């Protein structure tokens, strides 16, 4: 698993709890590198222009990072996009964290990254995660989703003007061959009621969100 930690605020203890295996790779994006250091995790790589950290903080990042790639501030890609495209070459599952808070344009841009051709061709899951949510983009086809007691809700939102043939099984509110148009909340806050749920559709792109209420 590769964790890419963006610059949005993250709780140190939660970030530390994500370390399930010593084989996890931690990538810090800009001041996300500081979040990794504060959580006492190994900073395997750091990407960014580092315009949001002080000179002293950058010295700390340079000292702790196994590898650092400093880029110019004016460029065509966000720092997180550069980190993601490196991670996509590694052929491992990827989680983006520290990527939902802060600036709304950055958050929406991070979701857009999940729809890129490069991300779509990745052989493993690429997901966006925070303490309450796990977000993933689904292309047309059939998907099996395991129940997870950590997440109460399952929502699917159209990411294209229409999603055709949407069928939901193993959930509280099933659908069969539904024509789902963008701009509706019909498919928000569903719940998985079987060990596995099934999501299938023949055309379009869906944003799937597993979520729970804030404690």
Q: What is the C-alpha radius of gyration, as a whole number of Å? A: 18 Å
Report the uncertain regions: none
Integer tally of domains: 2
The computed structural class is alpha/beta
Per the CATH scheme, the topology name of the largest domain is Rossmann fold
Major β-sheet annotation: 11 strands, mixed
Distance between the termini: 27 Å
Any guess at the CATH architecture of the largest domain?
A: 3-Layer(aba) Sandwich
Total of DSSP H or I helical runs spanning 4+ residues? 6
How many DSSP E strands? 11
SSE pattern, N- to C-terminal: EHEHEHEHEHHEEEEEE
* Overall residue-averaged pLDDT value: 94
Shape: elongated
Strand content: 25-35%
CATH superfamily of the largest domain: Thiamin pyrophosphokinase, catalytic domain
Share of helix among residues?
A: 10-25%
CATH class label of the largest domain: Alpha Beta
């Amino acid at each position: 698993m590769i964790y890419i930690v963006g610059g949005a605020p993250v709780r140190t203890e939660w970030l530390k709890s994500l370390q399930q295996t010593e084989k996890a790779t931690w990538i810090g994006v800009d001041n996300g590198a500081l979040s990794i250091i504060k959580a006492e995790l190994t900073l395997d790589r750091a990407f960014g222009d580092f315009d949001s950290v002080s000179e002293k903080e950058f010295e700390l990042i340079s000292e702790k990072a196994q590898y650092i790639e400093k880029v110019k501030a004016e460029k065509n890609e966000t720092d997180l996009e550069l980190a993601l495209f490196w991670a996509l070459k590694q052929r491992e599952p990827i989680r983006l964290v520290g990527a939902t808070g802060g600036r709304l344009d950055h958050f929406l841009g991070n979701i857009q990254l999940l729809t890129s051709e490069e991300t779509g061709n990745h052989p493993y899951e690429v997901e966006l995660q925070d303490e309450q949510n796990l977000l993933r983009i689904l292309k047309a086809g059939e998907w099996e989703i395991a129940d997870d007691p950590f997440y109460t809700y399952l929502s699917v939102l159209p990411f294209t003007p229409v999603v055709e043939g949407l069928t939901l099984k193993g959930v509280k509110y099933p659908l069969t061959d539904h024509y789902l148009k963008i701009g509706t909340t019909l498919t928000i806050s569903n719940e998985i009621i079987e060990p596995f749920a099934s999501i299938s559709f023949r055309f379009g792109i869906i944003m799937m969100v597993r979520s729970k209420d804030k404690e």
